[in-house]
Each structure stands twice: as structure tokens, then as C-alpha cells.
Amino acid sequence: MASSSGTSSGSSMLQNSGSEENLQALMDQRKRKRMISNRESARRSRMRKQKHLDDLASLVTQLRNENHQILASLNLTTHKCLTLESHNSVLRAQVNELSHWLESLNQIIDFLNATNGAFGPPGPLFEPDGSCLFNNVPCLTQHMTVGLSGF
């Protein structure tokens, strides 16, 4: 019996060691699968991260281009605005000058109407060559001709 008990305990040890080996192999296989799965998951994560970085880099490039276009448009608009302000300033000065000329001409007309016939019969104000018949008006007509030539 001792031999059978020794055999029986020997086969039981063999079974135990076989089970332990199978269990170890199974655990090793699961460990390898988990490691492979983790590596694949990390690879996918790196790919997602790289795609996200590429998308962000593309967005930065697009926004920089839009920014340059907006700045160029702003500079052009600012230049046009300054040009218009300059032209408006010139036009205001011309309006002011023309208003003074008109006021002077109205004063001359008022004077002529008030003195109608006092210095002789009313006649034309200008000679056929365009010069004025009055001594104090040639300066005014010269300014008018020079000022109006800019239009």
C-alpha cells in the first residue's frame, strides 16, 4: 500500500504541478493579451492625440491667415478713412472760402442796388474780356478764378 499510496501521491503531485503549469500558462497568456491590448490602446491614444495636435495646428494656421486678412482689410480701411478725412478737410476749407466770396458778392450787389443810378446809368459789371469795371473787385474775381479752377 505504501507503494500505491506513494504512486497515488506522486500522480496527485503530477496533476497538481500540471494544473499549476496550466494555470501559470493561462495567467501568462492573459497577461500577454492584456499587455497587447494595453499597447494597442496606447497606440490608439497616441494616434488620437496626434490627430488632435494636427487639427489644432491646422486651426492655428487658418486663424493666422484670417488674422492677416483682417489686418490687411483694417489697414486699407484706415488708409481710405484718412484719405476721406483729408478730402473732407479740403472741401470744408473750400466751402468756407466760397461762402466768404458769396458774402462779398452779395455785399457788392447790395451796394450796387443801393446806389442804383447814383454814379450814372447802371451798366454791365464786367468787360467783354472778363475784367471787372470796378477798382475794388478785380482782386475778388482773380481769387474766384484761381479758387474755382481746383474744381
TrEMBL record:
GO terms for cellular component: nucleus. Residues 1-19 have a biased composition (Low complexity). This is Ocs element-binding factor 1. It comes from Cajanus cajan. Pfam families: bZIP_1. SMART domains: BRLZ. Coiled coil: none annotated. PROSITE patterns: BZIP (PS50217), BZIP_BASIC (PS00036). Gene3D superfamilies: 1.20.5.170. InterPro entries: bZIP, bZIP_plant_GBF1, bZIP_sf.
